[in-house]
LD-carboxypeptidase (Streptomyces corynorhini), 339 residues
Amino acid sequence: MTSSALPQLLRPRALRPGDLVVIASLSGALPAAYEPNVGQTVVVLERMGFRVRRAPLLEAGRRHWWSAATPAEIAGELNGLLRDPEVRAIVASDGGQTALGYLDLIDVEAIRADPKPILGYSDISLLHLVLYSRTGLVGFHADMAVPGFGGHWQSAPVARQAELEKLYSRLLTGTEAIGALPASPSWECWRPGRVEGRLIGGVINRIVLAQATRFALPLEWFDGAVLFWEEMGGLASYVWGYLQVMRHCGILDRISGMVVGVPHEISGLEPGESPTLPEIVLDVLGDRDIPVLGNVEFGHAGPNLPMPVGIRVGLDAQQRTLSLLEPAVGPHAMTGPVS
């Protein structure tokens, strides 16, 4: 367990045009049918001005059980990317079920020496939470290759694609706060209020799993935090149960606000079903009077708005705004902690 004092943020160095971004299999395998998605991701990232390379384990049809390779092999490749000074960012190819197997094999000293953006969601939520806990690294809960840049992005309206491309480019290259994320009519105020706090979260089941490991975030780190979460698959009752776990362990008593992503393929949340997701959330929160903003576009429903773990944000649920109040990356020369 790490110190209970709030972590000193470890911001990766801002990317520059021509920097190398590597797409890597950090969890699940790459089915041959999704090979074109990787190609589309390369196009998107190159359009942002980056050079792009595929890591060796990102090979269509390669698999070990439900993974791209064994946990030790994935950790070995990830550590190689973390140690390689030419590599400036790592984009996960997909989610899956493997990150739990190598959380203890990651070279955290390489991260401290040369922090780099790691982009992904789903199973990659575990990496963001654990690396934030162990090093203070800002994690990029953001789109990845197969379901994101090469998937949801391709079916989005052209104007939305351009908006997201500009947003991601600013996120990775800019050292000024982005400010308000682009809102949409889908955003809903489930409980009004206005707060500021550090952004912590991911897929809700992975938050719960991370807290069951020896790399769990100390509860004090949730003091005043804005908790964001989303979920894919399973049952509505599971979501209620995960929220109850966070209630029992004290997380819900410490956070100052909550942002909920668009639910995806959750049985029991179909139109006309009861309870609704807002009812589930407010039932567990009880009389905890914190703002809740719902149905925000991040997670499996995609395309993703980026949610940088550890960054201070401003949330106004009634006005339906969520703002990044500080940059997710640091100056080019920076390779260490910043306040």
